[in-house]
Amino acid sequence: MPTNRQVLLDNRPKGEATASNFKLVTSETPALQDGQVLVRHHYLSLDPYMRGRMNEGKSYAQPQPLGQVMQGGTVGEVVESRNPKFAVGDKVQGMGGWQEYSVVDGNQAGMLRKLDTTHVPISQYLGAVGMPGVTAWYGLVKIIEPKEGQTIVVSAASGAVGSAVGVLAKQRGARAIGVAGGPDKCKYVTDELGFDACIDYRQHKDARSLAQALKEACPNGIDGYFENVGGLVLDAVMLQANAFSRIAMCGMIAGYNGEPIPMAYPQLILTNRMRVEGFIVSEHMEVWPEALKELGTLVATGKLRPRETVAQGLDAAPEAFLGLLKGRNFGKQLVKLA
Amino acid sequence: MPTNRQVLLDNRPKGEATASNFKLVTSETPALQDGQVLVRHHYLSLDPYMRGRMNEGKSYAQPQPLGQVMQGGTVGEVVESRNPKFAVGDKVQGMGGWQEYSVVDGNQAGMLRKLDTTHVPISQYLGAVGMPGVTAWYGLVKIIEPKEGQTIVVSAASGAVGSAVGVLAKQRGARAIGVAGGPDKCKYVTDELGFDACIDYRQHKDARSLAQALKEACPNGIDGYFENVGGLVLDAVMLQANAFSRIAMCGMIAGYNGEPIPMAYPQLILTNRMRVEGFIVSEHMEVWPEALKELGTLVATGKLRPRETVAQGLDAAPEAFLGLLKGRNFGKQLVKLA
């Protein structure tokens, strides 16, 4: 059996996460039992939700256990199988974690999904045609429910989730306005993803200033907002929100370090009769087939061309993850493992 | 025609509203035109929403115009009629405003509604069997959607809206927990309205302390919250909110003076997958018949026994209104005009 390298959560962050929270170890992969499959990971997905799980205490998911392999989505290839449902060479997706190999019970439902990589590159199953894409789809389609001609704003617009939100909104005849950090990301959001406009939040020190920029980009106000960030952007969007507008709360990177990120103007929820709704895509498995079908078609036909930032090798995972939390990635953050 | 006394909005509040914002004037009621009705008001309703309309600027309703009679709900009696649909002596409800008489076009739909006062005292049509009652009904039934055994919290629980929320929640097999100001109001909420518990927010200086009291009163967490206040209570409730809990945003007295009232922990909307929704009952006229039927039955059978605080005479209206904004009333605030 091959030697496996793994990244463990060694200790929990106090405030900001640092590289010293992680530990790289080497272990032998155990011999397979009946029904098990050995998967060699090609890509590991790094996602903001992982930061939340590094904390102790109440959140939507169980905390990541200390001393164990960091959890995370992976795509890869079956390299050994004692399960008739999986053959060596099958491309598969699972929650393999921050490691080079995983041993998976192929009989347990939902643990391993076979992938068709004819038209869709395997890494996209961790992005636009995977959890981030379905996250975009659920928040937009089921919570924001955009109507033709309405204006939809999404933060972290160049990211894996944000890029899909905008393209899906455009498909429904809505205007898509992005918020992103820096001119390069904004240019990508408008020129390559086809958003109607993108605002560089780094040009604005406070919510009022950002709200003014949003007003110019959204002359008819904002009907829906897909929230990936929290804080300043949320406040600014609420100042331009229309009556009966909807906010899908998907991520609040701004708050992962435990610092307070108050919502400045909650009374606008009342005066504008808004609906603000949090969700976690893994609790809505019923939409995955429909969502993946639309997302797969958009990627295969080139209508959704998501960017990827790819770190090389497992050693690079912790720094890549910390960079993701600071917005240093451009598009979907992956780690190439093979 | 009788002499009419009226309260006008003389100038807009700068910060807190004061008596000097209002002006009492006397005028002659004009002679009736064909189709018009002269109504003598028995009661004027004072409601928190009026404070919002005293401000200029964007809100859910047009601002109250300066120099004109303050708008408000009234019940009274037809004393003169040039409309075959209304006879002298009919009891009616309308938006007569802060004045002793109003002249109403009886042909315009929705302007004047005839009341049956056989089983329900006329003043209740401004409270439990009127706009405040339907507000409670809509927010509870349509937004919070309580299930049997769930825990529902309501702020301003002794008030016209809050009292109905609790009684309606109990009717649906839910636990009802009130938040109110002072021991007398809390005693009324539990002993006379039948809530399971009531917390005196004045005993708590911060959200953490109030959250601890809520935790003791709600050992299974909070599934629904009916928000009448904003600020501290909202923060405390959110700290005890369950997964998939719902907040109906109905009023935010705390913010009417324009001071900031941030929501301290918006990230809980995400981690608890909450739904937070603002509403205005006048935009949901379709529920009024069903709601009024249930509320009328609850009042007529003594299951909902709302308190009233009655100020005497139009002169007393401004001070009574300012007291309402400070929570000095006990139950529905009315002004007796005849």
Characterization of the model:
2 copies of one chain form a homodimer. In chain A, helix 7 links the parallel strand 12 (241-249) and strand 13. Helix content of chain A is 26%, strand content 26%. Chain A has helices spanning 49-54, 131-144, 160-171, 183-191, 207-217, 232-239, 267-271, 288-300, 317-325, and strands at 3-9, 22-28, 36-45, 74-81, 91-94, 101-105, 112-114, 151-155, 175-180, 197-200, 222-227, 241-249, 275-278, 308-312, 332-336. Chain A has 338 residues and is of the alpha/beta class. The first copy, chain A, has 2 domains: 3-127 and 307-336, Quinone Oxidoreductase, Chain A, domain 1 (Alpha-Beta Complex), CATH 3.90.180.10; 131-282, Rossmann fold (3-Layer(aba) Sandwich). In chain A, strands 3, 4, 5, 6, 7, 14 and 15 form a 7-stranded mixed β-sheet that branches. In chain A, helix 2 packs across helix 3 (160-171), helix 2 crosses helix 8 and helix 5 packs across helix 6 (232-239). Chains A and B meet through helix 7 and strand 13 of A and helix 7 and strand 13 of B. Strand 13 of chain A pairs antiparallel with strand 13 of chain B. Chains A, B: InterPro entries: ADH-like_C, ADH_N_2, ER, GroES-like_sf, MDR_fam, NAD(P)-bd_dom_sf. Chains A, B: GO terms for molecular function: oxidoreductase activity, acting on the CH-CH group of donors, NAD or NADP as acceptor. Chains A, B: Residues 17-335 form the Enoyl reductase (ER) domain. Chains A, B: Keywords: Oxidoreductase.
Summary, kept brief:
The structure is a homodimer of 338-residue chains. Chain A has 338 residues and is of the alpha/beta class.
